[in-house]
Amino acid sequence: MSEPRLVEVRRNVLKQNDVIARSLREQFASAGVFVVSLVSSPGSGKTTFLEKTLTQLQPRYRVAALVGDLATENDAVRLARSKAPVKQITTGTLCHLEAAMVQNSLQDWDLHQLDFLFIENVGNLVCPSSYDLGENLRLVLMSVTEGEDKPLKYPTIFNSADAAVVTKNELAAAVEFDWEAARMSIEAVRPGMQIFRLSAKTGEGMQDYLDFLAQRLTERRTPAHS
Amino acid sequence: MHELSIAMSIVDAALDEAKQRGVQVTAVHLRLGPLSGVVKDALLFSYEVACQDTPLQGSRLIVEDVPVVIFCAKCKEERTLESVQLFACPQCGAPTMDIRQGKELEVFALEIEEQEVTP
């Protein structure tokens, strides 16, 4: 045996996922659909928030959702009440969605028939941050019951997100939620990120967020200056 | 905990490179940034599991921690962040999202052994 030798290889470990994500992003662009992914810890109110989002966008837009869950189809059943097309991705033991799962789930959907596609990730603030799903906008959710320093505990996922949604605002007074502290935590790990404070239950604050989505869709469909 | 599936991807990548070169891998060098979302200790543990019953069994995973580097528009300089809990220039305090380094999850080198050719 000769002496060990070092050879340079330089391979991105998640290259396979990134390649699929890039192709999804191209597919979404050519179909003109705006894709929003949702990440949060379990119990932050993602499903209620998404149900309200689908219901309230529907009069004006064609919407659909993919929902990642470890084992059950309960979320898809709940979301189906919105009457929007919903498909469950059951991940088994996997704690996050990967681009290939999104690609497989979309095979029998015509993306040209959609304005918005929502992808609800598995409830987890760690693992989903590593995987690009080809989305145009990543929303990170935290509820007022989780504590103002959540962003400091999970900086990577907050840093990777494009906008933050603080949910369950109807409970803010009961849990003495410190809005300014939460805002500063988010600002520290993701400077300049837009933050929506709302209650999916009462509807408070939902309109600003829906207007924001509509605006992003319009921007996306406006051809860039050539 | 997604480090096992990451470890399996690392093993696959290393095996692929080893096969192309016709060599035996004794160690894998990985560059890991804090913004990759991967926990080093969990990854080291998972690597051993992922290597089992593959030609990489018994090989080592050597992780080089890559710090987060940002560009400060005010100082017009690249700076290393002290903590991922504060995305601001450590010198002047200006907030920044111009991230130049820190998302790495990259197999960058392999330690290999070649069979000596007997004359």
Structural features, described:
Chain A has eight helices and eight strands, in the order βαβαβαβαββααβαβα. Chain A is of the alpha/beta class and 226 residues long. The N and C termini of chain A lie far apart (60 Å). Chain B is an alpha+beta fold. The radius of gyration of chain B is 18 Å and the shape is elongated. Helix content of chain B is 26%, strand content 29%. Chain B has a domain of 78 residues: hypothetical protein PF0899 fold (2-Layer Sandwich), CATH 3.30.2320. In chain B, the strands form two sheets. A three-stranded mixed β-sheet of chain B has the order 2-1-6, covered by helices on one side. The chains are: A alpha/beta (226), B alpha+beta (119). Chains A and B meet through strand 1, helix 6 and helix 7 of A and helix 1, strand 1 and strand 6 of B.
Strand order of the largest sheet of chain B: 2-1-6
The first-level CATH class name of chain A: Alpha Beta
Which fold name corresponds to the CATH topology of the domain at 3-67 and 101-113 in chain B? hypothetical protein PF0899 fold
Strand order of the largest sheet of chain A: 4-3-5-2-6-7-8
Question: Main β-sheet of chain A: number of strands, strand sense, barrel status?
Answer: 7 strands, parallel
Radius of gyration of chain B: 18 Å
Determine the strand fraction of chain B and express it as a percent band.
Answer: 25-35%
Range of helix content of chain B: 25-40%
Largest sheet of chain B: 3 strands, mixed
Q: Total number of β-strand segments of chain A? A: 8
Report the end-to-end length of chain A measured between terminal Cα atoms.
60 Å
Most residues in contact, chain pair and counts = A-B, 34 and 40 residues
Globally, the shape of chain A reads globular
> Can you name the CATH architecture of the domain at 3-67 and 101-113 in chain B?
2-Layer Sandwich
Helix amount of chain A: 25-40%
Uncertain runs of chain B are: none
- SSE string of chain A: EHEHEHEHEEHHEHEH
Total beta-strand segments of chain B: 6
> What string gives the helices and strands of chain B in order?
HEHEEEEE
* Domain module count of chain A: 1
